[in-house]
Amino acid sequence: MMNTTDQQSKIVLVTGGSRGIGKSIALNAAKRGLGVILTYNSQPEQGQAVADEIKGNGGKAVALQLDSADTQSFSNFGKQILQVLGTEWGRENFDYLVNNAGIAQRTLIKDTTEELFDQLVNVNFKGVFFLTQKLLPLIADGGQIINISSGLARFAFPGVAVYGALKAATEGLTRYFAKEYADRKIRVNTVAPGAIDTEFGGGKGDEDHKQQLASAIALGIEIAGGIMI
Ligand SMILES: NC(=O)c1ccc[n+]([C@@H]2O[C@H](COP(=O)([O-])OP(=O)(O)OC[C@H]3O[C@@H](n4cnc5c(N)ncnc54)[C@H](OP(=O)(O)O)[C@@H]3O)[C@@H](O)[C@H]2O)c1
Hints:
It comes from Mucilaginibacter pocheonensis. By secondary structure, the protein is α/β, with parallel strands linked by helices. 42% of the residues lie in helices and 17% in strands.
């Protein structure tokens, strides 16, 4: 993204912006002067709290409900976005989409049910594809899409086979979206975080899991201010 001065009139939509990494993206975007539309799924109060924090600091933010697995709701979500853009910003489009919402898996291949498989596909892959497809007409030419992947797309770790494979698939999708929307000068990129200590997949407290993750990273993991680095 560009420098702070250039960002004053820009708008970012962050899915899953109510907690964890998405919350951090939303708060930091607002600090740079961007208008923020963030989504929550099951916890409206968390979404509203992030929007209120941004507004309390002099920024502009709106929290909306979105279930990435519910593709049928995307048309209506697009209409909500259009309405919010008009009322809050007097615009008909926004600049940046961060596809951050995601769910985790900690189940070995032998125990992975078809139901869990479908859940992971719907939120982490199918939802990303169809939400982006639906929102592209609302993204300004020259805008940007960032798909949040994971280090687990790039190395294998027991218990996350479907999750890791879907993140790798999302990285593939990223290149295809970039190719097909290059004529509109829309950049599409992946960010693949390492282990971040959020409430992801049930959250904190699993020291064995952290040690296992640390062993897969050359410099290990240090806990710093709640963030595993
Ligand atoms: N944490 C890590 O170590 C790590 C590492 C690499 C990549 N990532 C990726 O980073 C992204 C964010 O992870 P996180 O750790 O910040 O997760 P998190 O703390 O569990 O937060 C998840 C966010 O996604 C929303 N969400 C959950 N299910 C959803 C659904 N079906 N539809 C729409 N939104 C939904 C949640 O909203 P509600 O609370 O309202 O349900 C929440 O805002 C994910 O894509 C994850 O794969 C995480």
